[in-house]
Amino acid sequence: MKVFGIGRNYAAHIEELNNERPGQPVVFLKPDTAIIKNAEPFYFPKFTNNIHHEVEVVLKISKMGKHIEEKFAHKYYNEIALGIDFTARDLQQTAKEKRLPWTIAKGFDGSAPISKFVPKNDFDLNNLNFELKINNESRQIGNTSMMLFSFDYIISYLSQFFTLKVGDIIFTGTPKGVGPIKVGDQIAGYLEHEQLLSVEVK
Ligand code: MG
User: Fold this and answer.
1) What domains can you pick out in the chain, each with its CATH number?
2) The overall pTM is greater than 0.85
């Protein structure tokens, strides 16, 4: 099972990290050992001092496909969830400066908490509100209408390079407001005001 991450998909987040707006989706991968399921704690690792939260809408592939046309991409996923793309920002910054891969900064154990999945047909996917709170204080508010690349475009794009298989997961990018987490934080993720995700940092 593959876990894809899409970077730089919300303009305001690109600006807050002084990144360039991409011409195509920025793609990275996390291993399956990055996933933690809802309500399991996240253990802050020793190799970093600066982990950022990035709340994202997550898609789950429901049908195998390759070279999927954008107009058919909606047939390849039925369910969505909320996830957090935990990022070791210090390690990522070093990697960026040295033009090295982000694999460790993005793919370490526990770096991908994911909520339960819910049927996509219950939502307007082009106008989907989501939010991240820490210790009951709002930190990130997003709406999928602000994405540079739509879910369907992302699926079509990825499938040009990677065969998508049932159960593969796609993190679709984070809105502005990313910031550090610390031990003791209670992190909560909301999709249209329903709390789907909860993670305690230990
Ligand atoms: Mg991200």
Assistant:
1) 3-200 (3.90.850.10)
2) yes
